[in-house]
Amino acid sequence: MTLGPNIILKIPATGSLVKISTIGSGNTFGARWWTDGKMEAPMLPDDPWLRRHPVTGETFWCDECEKVASEGPWGEGTQYSEVPYAEDAAENDFQAQLSLPSLSPDKERYIRTRLWWLWNDPARNSDDSGARPAGFDANLRKLGLLLSHDEDDSRLMAAECFRELGDHEKAAELLDFNFPEEFQATVGVIFQANEERNVCLLEIA
Predict the structure, then answer these.
(1) What share of the chain is helix, strand, coil (3-state, %, to 5)?
(2) Quick one: residue 57, left, alpha or beta (phi over 0 = left, psi -120 to 50 = alpha)?
(3) In this predicted structure, what is the pLDDT of residue 26?
(4) Would you say 16 and 80 are in contact if contact means Cβ atoms under 8 Å apart?
(5) What's the CA angle centered on 186, arms 184 and 189, to 5 degrees?
């Protein structure tokens, strides 16, 4: 992995400055994938759409910010060297966004997907996922309905939503589709789990 420039952003609501790091190139060596669509790759960091300012605590969508400047990866000796790096949004930030009437369908899908991943995280390194948090099923059902059934990746993710909800008939209906070859490994895992009435998160080998 190689680092790209830091990007200095101005948050529109307050004018606060914040920086985000970028990568010049990355790869998926050592990556892990799960049936909920999440990938964790040591050499390809996540690039969140919604982030938090570490000082003011305000959340912001990167695409809504003004790009003020860029600097080298380490940011030393520039006029923006004291500008703090953005943090990842937390669960309460996602929940707050869902209450906004101006939230677009694309951003609602993003938020609900991130909540799903966050609530599934305890199961990623454990065989025992424990009790699901309050709101898990409601969030997943809404996400399953928001996802397009006409696009390969969205249809497969919707099928996984309904499988984890235990709606195996709906999941089977969505899986009955001619998915492209690159989706077949994931389709196979989800299909088998659905046949077994398994509602747990699974890793794609």
Answers:
(1) 40, 20, 45
(2) left
(3) 87
(4) no
(5) 110
Q: One-letter amino acid identity for 205?
A: A
Which residues 6+ apart lie within 8 Å of 13 measured at CB?
58, 60
pLDDT tens per residue, range 158-173: 999 999 999 999 999 9
State how far the alpha carbon of 125 is from the alpha carbons of 12, 28, 120, 134, in Å.
Answer: 38, 19, 10, 21
Is the whole-model pTM more than 0.90? yes
pLDDT 10s digits, 130-140: 789 999 999 99
In this structure, are residues 156 and 190 in contact, taking their beta carbons and an 8 Å threshold?
yes
Inter-residue contact 25 to 2 (CB < 8 Å): yes
d(CA 126, CA 121): 9
